[in-house]
């Protein structure tokens, strides 16, 4: 088995007394694509936010490589530079152009020169077919374009893992495809990805492993073919049946 | 493509309607102004009011002195505006920063904002203008100019801090999240992501405070600064005429107009950019 990039051990998280994560164990190997599926409120987003340290865990450990990143002495910003995350609502910076959105963090936090960061950014934009929009402001782009820019913005930091939080859920069905194409490309390049998604067909196609979450626990996990055709748990079967109809 | 007959008819109607509405607006404006002029001009006291407040020879005579002293107002408000922005941003950031260790500084910022926003500016001017020099502290400025600057900065810094704080809090938390998620520190996210958006959003109320500040430089006449209001007072005291005051008022009005147009320009520019109409 290849080396572990990101690992959660017995992670617990509550909000206002409601336990959202009830002991999550997850081990993501290098180059692996893991899809988190499950109903809204099952804890997928919270798990991703905990993995990126945007939320503080109440108990349990998270490891990035061989560093325990739940240690309060750790440099949180340095860790986040190694873990990219993209959100459902794109969250581009509206006062900056597409290019400046992508270049900001590599220059300010990554210590790269503006020229170098800009040439990387333009290269990445060219790959998603948006190089001619480098000078545009986010509001001038469609949702799909904005989400692709958000993906590029995260990748520009050259993270070791990419977390994707239902990044197609806010998009028009017509625009979902172009975002999924970018994810396919990233997978081909060997990017390690953990993504929460409701796109079952896509998850089945692209994932090395599917993790089904329910009520803050991992109900079942396994390779897509096995999980989708022969789920072990009744709960998984029920969820999948509802999603097929 | 040539427009259809129906479309041409619509356009004719719209042109006609715009013309009619414009004509109605123009006529009614002229009538109202004419009435005002007539009522005021035909009032029994107009002759005296005209001579006391709006007498051209008096205005011409007062102009050089008022203009010269208005230069002091301009210097005052330019210096204070810069300082107020700095104080405002600093106090606002201290108040929103989520660091428990900073509690004492945050408390100080809250007390500052509450006290100086609650005290009439005139009182602050008097307290600073006469109180600070009385302390006999070494290094404390004794020049009236700097005492005035300190007083107005203390007062307006508190207002502006609250406006900027409101602006910072109005930026959606997801903007913070994406800045931090990219590995930028709290300070970097504040500096490059949140603060620029916040300042843009609060530019109109900020301008409002600056206009008010420009007028309040006149309060510094009470501690002996001969700015334009004081100069006008001196002239009018000699001859019992009020026209110099009106001249001073004209200067204050003239000074606020560029500020207003500048903010309009900034607002329109950022709206246009961020709504996709790149210019």
From TrEMBL, chain A:
UniProt subcellular location: Cell membrane
Residue ranges of domain ABC transporter in the record: 6-240
InterPro entries associated with the record: AAA+_ATPase (IPR003593), ABC_ATPase_HisP-typ (IPR030679), ABC_transporter-like_ATP-bd (IPR003439), ABC_transporter-like_CS (IPR017871), MetN_ABC_transporter-like (IPR050086), P-loop_NTPase (IPR027417)
Signal peptide boundaries: none
PROSITE patterns with a match to the protein in the record: ABC_TRANSPORTER_1 (PS00211), ABC_TRANSPORTER_2 (PS50893)
SUPFAM superfamilies according to UniProt: P-loop containing nucleoside triphosphate hydrolases
Domain of life: Bacteria
Presence of the UniProt keyword Disulfide bond in the record: no
Record protein name field: Amino acid ABC transporter ATP-binding protein
Keyword Protein biosynthesis: no
Family that this chain belongs to: Belongs to the ABC transporter superfamily.
Automatic annotation (TrEMBL), chain B:
Main location class: membrane
Superkingdom of origin organism: Bacteria
Keyword field: Amino-acid transport, Cell membrane, Membrane, Transmembrane, Transmembrane helix, Transport
An annotated Gene Ontology molecular function: transmembrane transporter activity
PROSITE patterns: ABC_TM1 (PS50928)
Bilayer-spanning residue ranges: 21-41, 74-97, 109-132, 144-161, 240-260
GO cellular component: ATP-binding cassette (ABC) transporter complex
Bilayer topology: Multi-pass membrane protein
Subcellular location: Cell membrane
Gene3D superfamilies per the UniProt record, alphabetical: MetI-like
Family as reported in the entry's similarity comment: Belongs to the binding-protein-dependent transport system permease family. HisMQ subfamily.
Protein name: Amino acid ABC transporter permease
